[in-house]
Sequence to fold (284 residues):
Amino acid sequence: MGQLLSGKEVAEALTAVMKKDVEALKAKGITPTLGIIRVGEKGPDISYEKGATKRCEEVGAAVKNYVLPEDTTQEKLLEAIRQANDDSGVHGILLFRPLPKHIDDNAARAALLPRKDMDGITDGSMAGLYSGSGQGYAPCTAESVIKILEHYQIDPAGKRVVVVGRSTVIGKPVALLLLEKNGTVTICHSKTKDMPSIIKEADIVVVAMGRAESVGKESFREGQIVVDVGVNPKPDGSKGTCGDVKFAEVEPIVAAISPVPGGVGSVTNCMLINHLIRAAQRVS
Fold:
């Protein structure tokens, strides 16, 4: 039976530290404030917004909302971004995506200041991640993987790491973050041949395919660490969510595995607030 890498446990530890950081900033007269820009009333966006707001309240940070209708114009969205950029009291910005089809996503991302980009969506943030310059912030979900490994004292240095998935949201950035931690990283994707044999060679496996229960016991061996980033509806149509890994098959084999739910997703909004605090500290 593998050790459970509980995201809830990681989130609780991070929250305790963040509360102290916010107290220190408030003593200097600074309240870390997150600007949330949302277009429309999509359920997942609203749910994440509520979670982020609750986490802000828990640590003593503040939220400023910019809510636009689904049919808003490109110019009105860009104006909201400009307002948040120019507001010295807003230390970080979360822009919900995907945007409606009539909005130019590239233009919206380009308008956002990398130093206020809390979820690593701008080209400037991505460039900073690639170069290691410290400009901008990594995508929150990708950095959550690193925080889970750190919390459980799992050091990627010198280890063989396989990342399954190559999206710009998770796969590519988490691979770069693991390289920064001196892991020897291989990226697998939909065109990879004989993926199970490659995954079996790894000491640490990060699965971020976005396909429900698509990776089973044939891909794993004893002793591996598995971080499942996927959050999907259950393929049988029952209530709840599942990961990209067939948990019931894989958990008895490997040394440790993150559950879904209760794993990476539990840490993601903590990383958002962590970025916000870092942004506020830079101007303190």
In short: The domain at 140-265 is CATH 3.40.50.720 (Rossmann fold). The mean pLDDT is 96.
